[in-house]
Amino acid sequence: MDVDCLGIGFGPGNIGLAVAMEEAGFKFSAHFLERLPAPDWQPEMLLDGSDIQHNPLRDFATPRNPSSKFGFLSYLHAHNRLFEFLNLNAP
User: Please, which residues bridge with residue 32 across strands?
Assistant: First the structure.
């Protein structure tokens, strides 16, 4: 198969690239290869009872484009969950 852009793995870097290409109106062909059948965040690396201390604003789109429809806050807003998230009692 001939493609203009081939991504190996669909981790954070290539997800961010796919979002940027979509928002920029990339009109060429792109294909991403991933060996895993489903998303898996840091497989087998978390300790029982631990939590990922990751700022949700460091998603694949927000730092580059805060108004992106692919950003975490946009997702929360679209699903009427923004205020629920803002009122979480997270440490």
Answer: 7
Reported as half-sphere exposure (CB side, CA atoms, 13 A), residue 84 has a value of: 7
Question: Residue 83 is encoded by which pair of tokens?
Answer: 């205020």
Interatomic CA distance for residues 21 and 23, integer angstroms:
6
Mind listing the pLDDT tens digit for each residue in 59-84? 888 888 999 999 999 999 999 999 99
Q: What tens digit of pLDDT does each residue of 30-56 get?
A: 999 999 888 777 677 767 777 666 788
Tell me the torsion sign for CA atoms 50, 81, 40, 27: negative
Q: Which residues pair with 8 in a beta bridge?
A: 33
Q: Are 76 and 56 in contact (CB under 8 A)?
A: no
What tokens appear for 10 in the block? 């669909």
CA dist., res. 59 & res. 9, Å (int): 17
Helix/strand/coil percent split, the chain, to 5:
25, 10, 65
